Amino acid sequence: MYYFIVFLLLLVAQLLYFIIAKKFSIIDKPNERSSHTKPTIRGGGVIFVLAVLLAWIMGVASWPLALGIVLVGAVSMVDDIRPLHQLPRISVHLLATGLLIYDISQGTSLGLWIPVLFFLLIGWTNLFNFMDGINGITVLYALVALFTFYQLPELEGDQELVALVGISALVFAWFNVRKKAKTFAGDVGSISMAMVLGYLMIKVIFITQNPFYLFFFSLYGIDACMTIFIRLSKKENIFNPHRTHLYQYLANEKGFSHLSISFAYAVLQLLINMLWIYGIGLSEIHWLAGLLFVVILVPLYFVLRRFAQPVENNLKTS
């Protein structure tokens, strides 16, 4: 009953947002680099922020986490409505990242680890945002990550938070995981969700001292990182919009449906996560297994990318 009430509250909030978005024309209009073809409400992922705020009100999320997510959510919402200069966005992201790291490290001196954690959390947030390009991919991938984190005994104290954010993702999924989505997450959704997931990831790594939990994000990580590497090698501006991720090639060049690609990413990542939890194990660091995993995954990614990208691009990279 408790979770059902939360579901109803977030559903009502989502429907109210649709009314507001239509009134103020918070609409994502397709352009030549879009993977969608009709105007769609942008910023529906604001309910991820509301879920974290609700978690704080209910006492299952800390104030630094809630404040950090509300700050990035607010600046991203403004940016969704009217593009902002980079300075206010970067400043707020740094402040929010600092709040989340402060929350994770309370009572412990991090020392030289602070810049590393800043780099990981901000880097992950941007990678997750870059991958938000087709119907369903962001929310399905997030649901897989939340489901995985919910099972970890090291994060037992965060299960209520994970559940509330998961419910908000389910509400959003109803309107997004469609052939013709009713709403997109927008920066407010992708960035706030990225920070929640990054917070949970850094927390479990901090607790266990095992960096291999990062494999829970391996598919997003390899697609985003390898795409950035390829674009940098071509001297492209990586901050300009593009359609050169593997999932975009599969959708736009190969013609696979958005939902089939989104479910494929989610299901494959879920299988990888279950393999690491119940197969290989994360109670200790298995260096050989980690190395073999990377050695298999990276070449496989480039094989799929070569298959999916346009013929002229294949010729250039031959």
From TrEMBL:
An annotated Gene Ontology molecular function: metal ion binding
Protein's cellular compartments: Cell membrane
Keywords assigned by UniProt, alphabetized: Cell membrane, Magnesium, Membrane, Metal-binding, Transferase, Transmembrane, Transmembrane helix
Protein name: Glycosyl transferase, family 4, conserved region-containing protein
Membrane topology field: Multi-pass membrane protein
Positions bound to Mg(2+): N129, D187
Cell inner membrane is among the record's keywords: no
GO terms classed as biological process: cell wall macromolecule biosynthetic process; cell wall organization; lipopolysaccharide biosynthetic process
Spans traversing the lipid bilayer: 45-75, 110-127, 134-153, 159-177, 184-206, 212-234, 255-279, 285-304
GO cellular component: plasma membrane
Cofactor: Mg(2+)
Major location category of this protein: membrane
InterPro entries hit by this protein: Glycosyl_transferase_4 (IPR000715)
Highest taxon of source: Bacteria
